[in-house]
Amino acid sequence: MNKNQSKKDQKDAEFGLDSRYTSKNEYAAEASALMEARLNRMKNLTKDQIIRAKLMQLKLQMEEYIRQPIHDHQNQFSRFLKTYIDAIYTTRNGFAQDINITPVRLSQLLNNHRTPQDEFFMKLMIHSEMVYQKVCDFKKTTWYQVYFHEKISDTILNQDKWRPKLEKDVKLSETL
């Protein structure tokens, strides 16, 4: 290997390029073969394996959301809840029955027309423990953390709406 080739390999590695291929056709053929192998494997997955994969993906997305700083992604709790329910149940009514709430109340929660109460969180926590015990480790606090992270983000990002009104009611009578 000459000096120029070595520099090219280092540059390619720096940018994550794969230098094994000598032509675009070779790369395209490998990519096509890989995609075909992945599709064949996906066709052979059982329903249970698909559900497990969706639940694992959801868990990782929720944990990533919690780790992020304040941002403006609204209604993440309801989006995650919809994904959770849809991964397990064929109808959302089945989930509502399993946690003993009405389908109407569930619909209101999913569409952000009602805020979840503590009892709902507790039922969701128990349900998640039961579901995830066969999939992976799932922290009991995850649903709470997602919900309150969203609330904190919403509060911080919407200060221009609520702050002027409330600042009139707040004073500091003691100096520091």
What does this structure look like?
With 176 residues, this protein is an all-alpha fold. The chain has helices at 3-14, 24-43, 47-67, 76-88, 92-98, 103-110, 118-132, 142-157, 159-167. It folds into 2 domains: 3-43, no CATH class; 47-158, no CATH class. The protein is built from 9 helices and no strands. α3 (47-67) packs across α8 (142-157).
What characteristics describe this protein?
single chain; 176 residues; mainly alpha; 2 domains; flat
**Which structural class matches the secondary elements?**
mainly alpha
Largest sheet: none
Please tell me the overall pLDDT. 83
Number of helices: 9
List the helices and strands and how they pair.
Blueprint: H1 3-14, H2 24-43, H3 47-67, H4 76-88, H5 92-98, H6 103-110, H7 118-132, H8 142-157, H9 159-167
Helix pairs in contact: 3-4, 3-8
Give a short synopsis of this structure:
With 176 residues, the protein is mainly α.
